[in-house]
Every structure is written in structure tokens, then in C-alpha cells.
Amino acid sequence: MKVAVIGANGQLGSDIIKEFKLAGDDVSGINHCDVEIYDIDSVNSIFKLIKPDLVVNTAAYHNVEKCEQNALRAYQVNSMGARNLAMACNDQDIYLVHISTDYVFNGNQNVPYLETDLAKPLNVYGNTKLSGEHYIESIAEKYMILRTSGLYGKSPCRAKGGLNFVQLMLKLAKERDEIRVVDDEILTPTNTAELARQIVKIKHPDVYGLAHATAECMCSWYQFAREIFEITGTKINLQVASQDEFPSKVNRPDYSVLENSLLKQYNLNVFNHWETGLKEYLLPE
Q1: For the chain, where are the alpha helices, taking DSSP H only?
Q2: Whole-number Cα distances in Å, 180 to 55, 107, 183, 200
């Protein structure tokens, strides 16, 4: 199968490239210098050049605070970009896998979100990603939208200064005697290597549509940090931060746990408990 990965040099894209190559597929990496996804002519041109059977889109304007400051740019990339990909994939009979986010939910419930639950984003980023989902659902014939949560991987995350949460915690542990982390935001940290393997699993799908794709179970950021230090044997005074200690400039969901119900329904789910994914990341063989 010929596969094109948009955002190939990113945190998730790098792992997707690796996993498709391990599966024996012919993979082409597409980066920002190769295509502007909010320009339909640019998208059509690169697809006609590569002629992929499958396109995986990881590209997004996903710095949440910058999205608030530049909503037009966020809409161009996250919404119109998704629309253009859907149109080009339809025109050229390409299967589209598009990565979305847990931030389409407002976090007001305390049980894992299903794909059928009402999406009500709290911020510009979530709204533009939800708009992108709607464009794909209304245009594309062959697609899978995968919502995920709390990604971390080996490759640098440029939107977060090159450091994911795991790397940041280990860096701070070398610099400080005490680290304070919030305990009131609940999520499912997801290793990008696992998500990449999930995408390879659905390259010949029995179903199209919208699916949640995260590691199993849930934790707070504090619990995640505690497990990072436990696995690595790092000695640090880890404390729970007060709710107002790190005020955010942007509204974010306090609870964004996703249930992989559609993947499980079709026996496609490959995810393990989030602690297993973290151990794989920190203790590679």
C-alpha cells in the first residue's frame, strides 16, 4: 500500500512513518515545506504526484493559546485544511485518516466520552478541530477520524517547545527540589507509538467513521507525573498544585477521557493501559 503521512516530521507523524515501514508499506512523508493544506491546489498537486492509497493527516495548528490569539489561522489549518483533504481524497479515491482531539468536549461529565456524545468545545482549538471533523464527515467517502488525548512521543513536539510532558517532568526533576502538578484535570496519556500501531491496524478498515483512539483507563496530570518518577526511579518532592496556582489563559476541559467504543466494537482496538504505554516509552527494549 502507498501511504502518505502529512506532518511526517512531527511527534506523531514520525512514529506513523516508522510503523508503516515496519508493516512493509511504501511510505512518503509530507511536511509543511511540501504542502499547504489550507490551499486546495497545493493538496491536489502533492496527491497527484505521490498517488497514495491512504493519507494520514497529523498536521494541525494545535498550540491552544496561539489558537485563541490567531483564530483565523487555526480555522484555515484545522477546518479548511480538513475540508481540502476530504475533497482531494474523494477526487483521487484515497482513504483518509484524520487525527482529532479530546478537546472537542467540554469536560462536564465524569464518565468516559463515547463517539456519540455531544461535542461542545471550550476554546478556539477545539472548535476548529470539530469543524474539521464535520467537513470530513460531510464530504469524504472513505475516511476515519481518530480522536486522541495527551500525546507524548520520542520525536520533539514543536508546539510545546520540543518537550512533551514526560520529558518536561524529568528535566524539572534535575533542576528543582520540588515539582507541583495539578490533580484536578483527568485525561488518558497516550504514547504516539501505540497510536501509530493503531493507525496501521485500520489501514484496511471494515468500517469508516469517527472513532476514539487513546490508551486505556485514566489519570490526573499529578498521577501521570508520579508514575513517570516511579518508573524511572527519580527522587523528587512531588506535590499537588492548588487549583489557582497555574492559571490558564484558555478554558480547557477538566475531564477528557475517551472510550474506544467503536474500535472495540469492530475488534480493532490495540491500546493497553496508559501505564503500559508509559513503560514502553521510558524503558524501551
Answers
A1: 11-22, 40-50, 64-69, 71-74, 81-91, 124-139, 165-175, 192-201, 221-232, 261-265, 274-282
A2: 40, 23, 10, 37
CA distance 212 to 217: 13
Q: What is the pLDDT averaged over residues 13-22?
A: 94
What phi and psi values does residue 123 have, to the nearest 5 degrees?
A: -145, 175
Residue whose C-alpha is closest to residue 87's, from 135, 150, 15: 135
- Mapping DSSP onto H, E and C, the string for 142-196 reads CEEEEEECCEECCCCCHHHCCCCHHHHHHHHHHHCCEEEEECCCEECCEEHHHHH
Q: Report the CATH number that the domain containing residue 9 is assigned in CATH.
A: 3.40.50.720
Q: Is residue 113 part of a domain?
A: yes
The rounded distance, in Å, linking the Cα atoms of 283 and 285 is 6
Query: For 114-144, what is each residue's pLDDT tens digit?
Result: 999 999 999 999 999 999 999 999 999 999 9
Q: What is the pLDDT, as a whole number, of residue 159?
A: 61
What pTM value is reported for the model? 0.93
Residue pair 114/101 in contact (Cβ under 8 Å)? The answer is no
Task: Give the length of the chain.
Answer: 285
Mean pLDDT taken over the chain: 92
Residue 232 lies in a domain: no
The Cα 225–Cα 104 span in angstroms is: 25
Whether 208 is in a domain gets the answer: yes
Domain that holds residue 195: 2-155+190-217+257-272
Q: What pLDDT, in 10s, does the model give residues 91-112?
A: 999 999 999 999 999 999 989 9
Taking 90 as the threshold, does the pLDDT of residue 276 lie above it?
Answer: yes
In a domain, 101, yes or no: yes
Percent above pLDDT 90 for the chain: 78
Domain count, the chain: 1
Closest alpha carbon to 248 in 221, 226, 213, 269:
221
